[in-house]
Amino acid sequence: MTAAAPRHYVSVPGLHGAGLPQDRLARIAARQAFVDLKASFLDAVAALRPGRRADWLRAQVRAAEEPVDLWLLRSAIFAELDHPDTDSRRLRHAMRRRLDAVFLDSGPPSGFAAL
């Protein structure tokens, strides 16, 4: 029995390791952006009040393998961090900054369009 390939793996015969140096650098940059995003999510869920929902969110964030996995959890985490204290505000802000860095068009529409 063979294990299933990860969902980000694309097998193309004869092209193993092919690609330009810029491709490799782009993959490294994308991976670093994901690691930074996941770190901000881990910080946020570490600060949640103990409970079943917080435990579930912690497990989901730890299991995330791609930015979209974290994107789908964002509203649940923001809802849990909806407190007026300084730490919650700081964590929400850090998550929004990281989300905006990874998902460039995630902000509200501004009314301006690129030319």
Comma- or semicolon-separated keywords:
115 residues, mainly alpha, 4 helices, 60% helix, 0% strand
**Helix content range of the residues, please?**
55-70%
pLDDT averaged residue by residue: 81
Secondary structure tally: strands: 0
What is the approximate shape?
globular
- The structural domain count equals 1
Radius of gyration: 18 Å
Determine the N-to-C terminus distance: 52 Å
List the uncertain runs: none
Q: How many separate helices?
A: 4
Tell me the major beta sheet.
none
Order of helices and strands: HHHH
β-sheet strand percentage: under 5%
Category by helix and strand content: mainly alpha
Could you explain the architecture of this structure?
This protein is mostly helical. It has one domain. The chain has four helices and no strands. The protein has helices at 21-46, 52-63, 67-80, 86-102. The radius of gyration is 18 Å and the shape is globular. It starts with 20 loop residues before the first helix and ends in a 13-residue tail after the last helix.
Can you give me a brief rundown of this structure?
This protein has 115 residues and is mainly α. The protein has helices at residues 21-46, 52-63, 67-80, 86-102.
List the helices and strands and how they pair.
Layout: H1 21-46, H2 52-63, H3 67-80, H4 86-102
Helix pairs in contact: 1-2, 1-3, 1-4, 2-3, 3-4
